């Protein structure tokens, strides 16, 4: 574990865990996670429909919580992680969501829901947080096709169909591309974009583990764009930067860690290097598959992704 930057940490005196019983099709409920956490001396809050997670976290910190865990989807994780960073407390990710992308990149074993509770008394390191217009995100902000799809009321129940419908509308020759405007690292302006993905640390783009992040402490945003066909350069590009700005003519529909959010222009992205203390079980891998297979290194410039000659 030490080779990935993890070190032993003092156990908390009053740990708190928040559980979304609806995440991951009820993964935490099926595992009996609330009682198992209480048996370990952890204060547990099981969220009910309509409950304000931010208020529950605030109340727990006010009452003396000295470690904050979340069992739920990546959007809920970001809420608790934001509070943990604000108060300088360790954050524990329990992989009870659907895909658990953040857990995988952190090095948590997504198949070991019970064992993830060992993180409260586990090993610790610091990782980066990213933000857009002051809102924290752990994974990424998606704009363009995906951002518009997430905002549709049908998305949760029919993700693939909704995404396909939005993609067809945007990418068809008569479709309306987004109003997003940005300048890439080569100084080229892009005004007709189909996809923009800004991530907290860059994703690996090469096989055999595309999609994972090899580092969570590079201090850099990962930026991936894809122009709409027959508009502008007509290709994709990927690069890294500590901060970034996107302009738009109107409010922008975005997917922020998978949650539908409306963002106002300009969209200002920035890194908060090593802002978050995180803990995991010492028995878990401690690094993402991308890091373990050495497919990328922190701060490495990503390859340009081309779609034709432009």
Instruction: Give the class from helix and strand content and strand pairing.
Output: alpha+beta
Q: Helix amount, in percent? A: 10-25%
CA-atom Rg in angstroms: 20 Å
Q: Which regions are unreliable across 5 or more consecutive residues at pLDDT < 50?
A: 149-177, 295-310
| Strand runs, count | 17
> How does the major sheet shape up?
9 strands, mixed
Strand content: 25-35%
Distance between the termini: 45 Å
Q: Which word captures the global form?
A: globular
Number of helices: 8
Topology readout:
Elements: E1 7-8, E2 15-19, H1 27-30, H2 33-39, E3 43-46, H3 53-62, E4 67-71, H4 74-87, E5 90-94, H5 101-106, E6 123-132, E7 135-137, E8 140-144, H6 145-150, H7 159-171, E9 182-183, E10 189-190, E11 193-200, E12 221-227, E13 236-241, E14 243-246, E15 252-256, E16 259-263, E17 267-280, H8 289-292
Parallel strand pairs: 2-3, 2-4, 4-5, 5-17
Antiparallel strand pairs: 1-6, 6-7, 6-17, 8-11, 8-15, 9-10, 11-12, 12-13, 14-17, 15-16
